[in-house]
Amino acid sequence: MGKVGLLVDFTECIGCQACVKACKEQNNLPRPSYTDYSDLTAENYTVVLEKAGTNFRKLCMHCHEAACVSACPVGALQKTPEGAVTYDAGVCIGCRYCMIACPFQVPKFEWDNPFPAVRKCIYCYDIVKEGEQTACARACPTGATMFGERDRLLQVAKRRLAAQPDRYVDYIYGEKEVGGTSTLFLSGVPFDKLGFRMDLGEKSLPELTWVVLNKVPNIVITGYLLLGGIWWIVDRRKRMEAERLAEEEEHEESA
Predict the structure, then answer these.
(1) 146-164 burial string, b = 16+ CB within 10 Å, else e?
(2) What is the dihedral sign for C-alpha 90, 94, 97, 101?
(3) DSSP readout, 104-168?
(4) 105 by DSSP, 3-state: which?
(5) Is 38 helix (H, G, I), strand (E, B) or coil?
(6) 245 CB contacts (<8 Å, ≥6 apart)?
(7) What would the pLDDT profile of 17-40 be if each residue is shown by its tens digit?
(8) Kind of pairing, strands 183-186 and 4-9?
(9) What is the pLDDT of residue 204?
(10) What is the distance between the alpha carbons of residues 43 and 20, in angstroms, rounded to a whole number?
């Protein structure tokens, strides 16, 4: 299988939230009331919203050249060969540069967790790499969310635009944005009316970032070393706190 992706056709979405519930079950996320599904959060990797008479989804775009991956100084975020952008909380130092770098404002921080991590959709990578579909695509009752090879999904999207021009806006969101994304959207309503950014251009953001960073190599190296030191301190504190809690539990059990 080549690089995978999702094609989400908003004209087929009935707003049933099946994709949201499946995502929560797959990722062991809390399930608040529907009124709390208002935006992406550390507990909501995807949401289904309604605007301009259209149901639409928000989730990680899994950019081909992801700005979050480029901005992460310790490699906590990685672009996999299958196309998913994954996250390793054990490596993360909590700098939140990924949140600043992402043009789609996807990564979210666990502000209320004593041992916080960054959270986002990872395309159900643990099951996708075994050849399965993402949980959201598997759960969708109308086929509004399709999983498969990104090139094939792009062909499907183009055929739909050609076959039903009155049904769709003549645009595939994600085909070219910031160098292309694995998540693709079709809509019957202009994307800007749904709150999607239309000013991102076609150049990948890491490409633009490194044009600037290459002019200041000393700053980059110094910053990397500094953040490496911060990671060591944060990791050491986490381990010490975990050991302290374990000792307290052992003391309480023996008392």
Answers:
(1) bbbebeebbeebeebbeee
(2) positive
(3) T---EE-TT-SS--EE---TTHHHHTTTPPPHHHHH-SSS-EEEEEHHHHHHHHHHHHHH-TTTS
(4) coil
(5) coil
(6) none
(7) 999 999 999 999 986 544 466 789
(8) parallel
(9) 87
(10) 11
Written as six digits, the tokens of 79 are 């672009």
Q: Architecture of domain 4-204 in CATH?
A: 2-Layer Sandwich (3.30)
Tokens of 45: 């990797």
Phi-psi region of 235 (alpha: psi -120 to 50; beta: other; left: phi over 0): alpha
pTM of the model: 0.81
- Report whether 12 contacts 18 (CB < 8 A): no
- State the pLDDT at residue 35: 47
Identify the H or E element spanning 108: strand 108-109
Nearest residue to 91 via CA among 75, 72, 112: 75
Chain position carrying tokens 């500094």: 226
180 φψ region: left (φ > 0), alpha (ψ -120 to 50), beta (else): left
Q: Which two tokens stand for residue 113?
A: 């967790």
pLDDT of residue 206: 76
CA distance 15 to 10: 9
- What is the rounded CA–CA span in Å between residue 168 and residue 9? 9
